[in-house]
Amino acid sequence: MEKLLNIQEMSKLIGLSTHTLRYYEKIGMLKGVARNEQGYRCYSEADLLWIQFLICLREMDMPISEMMHYSNLRTQGDSTVYERRVMLEAHQDKVVQQMNKLNENLGRIGAKIEHYKGLEKTVFCEK
């Protein structure tokens, strides 16, 4: 039998607050979390994997509305596999564009740093 985690254990393990876990459940992104005899949440390995994926989406700046839509599609089962894949591909494209823009801007900052280093050598050599 797999070890089930309570909300504090899950929170500590994944780095989300208990408030966020409850919120995800309240808005329907985290469905089917088991409860024990006392009514406390008992998170399974499957719950852990799903929450980790939600964290991944959030860290990649997917809006909560899109995360909810993806979650609802997932709940509908295999009939939505195509739509989920297309949705992830579209988000992946956005992330790649953001990464390209960040790399471009990082290059600009690097060039400016090199420019300042050159100026420093000129200024300090003259003194």
From TrEMBL:
One of its GO terms (molecular function) is DNA-binding transcription factor activity. The keyword Zinc-finger does not apply. InterPro entries: DNA-bd_dom_put_sf, MerR-type_HTH_dom, MerR_fam. Pfam families: MerR_1. Residues 4-73 form the HTH merR-type domain. Transmembrane segments: none annotated. This is MerR family transcriptional regulator. Gene3D superfamilies: 1.10.1660.10. Keywords: DNA-binding. The keyword DNA-binding applies. It comes from Paenibacillus monticola.
